[in-house]
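Issue: ligand-bound run for magnesium ion - logging full I/O for the record.

Environment: standard queue, default settings, no custom constraints.

Inputs:
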Amino acid sequence: MTVAIEMGLTTAGAAAAMDLEELLATRLLVQGNSGSGKSHLLRRLLEQSAPWVQQAIIDPEGDFVTLAERFGHLVIDAEDHTERGLQVAGERARLHRVSTVLNLEGLDAENQMRRAAAFLGGMFDVERDHWYPMLVVVDEAQLFAPAVAGEVSDEARKLSLGAMTNLMCRGRKRGLAGIIATQRLAKLAKNVAAEASNFLMGRTFLDIDMARAADLLGMERRQAEAFRDLERGQFMALGPALSRRPLRLNIGSTETSPRNSTPRLMPLPEATLEDARAVILAAPPPDASRPQRRPAPDLLEQLRAAKAAAPEISPEAVEVAVSAEELAERRERVDRTLRAVLAAPDAGFRAIGVLYQEFVVRCRIEGLGAAVPDLSEFRRMLTHARAGVGTDIAEDDAWQEVTLRASILPDDMQGVFMMIARAAKEGWPCPGDAAIARAYGSHSLRRAQRLLGYMEEQGLIVVQLDGGGRRFITLVELAWATAPGDPNGDDQPAEQIASAASA
Ligand SMILES: Nc1ncnc2c1ncn2[C@@H]1O[C@H](COP(=O)(O)OP(=O)(O)OP(=O)(O)O)[C@@H](O)[C@H]1O
Ligand SMILES: [Mg+2]
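Outputs:
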């Protein structure tokens, strides 16, 4: 008997099937940039094969816990268990042939690696009598098998890399069929990727990933260029379980959705106040090594500023329609006032509330009384201005995409991201650390470097050095790249633009 898992339709409209038995005898690698549809693809594969085969999912974001409701997977919250506990759980899941989702959400990188390794180790070490076939899916596999050492301890890295290597290299004999997905092939340890013989390649922008993919698939680099044009949910399939020749297919729909999608309203649970008190106010657990959140902005100051700024609207000012020219002229005056406020040498380092207050005063002097932007509008303008983005660009379509990407970052980082995006869009040199720090309202160069690291972790940008030690940054989703720039130089794109505009 062969079992065909329907993955979707080929671009020619035929059913695209995956041979489950062949898959169990081989392994699968899924690659595609953020948003290309990898997690969706894994979900489709898991849903379609759930009736046929036991599954384990290593889930860094807790995306797959929703499979439990529909298909009866056991969700294991890794946060609640020790490494030893998870190793035993891995063994038992195999003995009892129970499908599981290992939810690693909420753990830091070090603990994600250690606990995933323990769980995988348990499944791997089980007695020969229990070597039934199962699918082991690892989403964001580069987290567990990184190509280069990161900030975690050597020990955690060794454990995790060892477990992933075992899964991909020696798992088959033990019935474990590894299925791994990654955003960036270049970030995944080579030996782990090299064991896959089935591939589903999604949208890929960076040359370095494309080159790795071409090597793995034994394609010409030129052929791999086609990965750039794939749409969301579209993948190129190749391998014994899929197709003997590269086959383009659209992944079909899924029955469940990621838990992290739009929240829905739900009736509140019925519990007595006493129960609630006991639960909510129980003694706090010992302090876990959670990352500290940055301090909240000075709300009080902002409120005070906003209050001082509340425009005094006289009844006749609630006004008659304003003509388009008048609006444009007003906007120009508001922009000019903002530039004047930002021209002060220390403007980059002053609290937003203080800047706003000054802005409001100047607007009044300009006679802009009722047209003064409110604090949240001011914040948006400030972000754009610090990034060197004028109103004209802000309305451009591609730029809307940048704004959308930026919105996943904390407010105060968005300006920096936009500054980089602007440089990338125009092909300007990559801003130096000093310019980045300034756009962030900081003097610290180390903080500027950490910021870039953070954005890179979020999958927004890729930072690379050229042969001469000059830095260039590529925007992952938009595939724009800055020209190389000296990280220690003092390029100030925002001010370049301002002076270009006023010249
Ligand atoms: N074939 C598809 N049909 C319909 N919607 C899809 C399809 N593929 C992806 N999507 C939707 O596109 C969005 C992004 O997909 P997904 O989360 O799978 O991307 P991803 O490659 O896993 O990204 P990341 O690397 O950031 O996790 C999701 O909202 C998903 O529901
Ligand atoms: Mg994903």
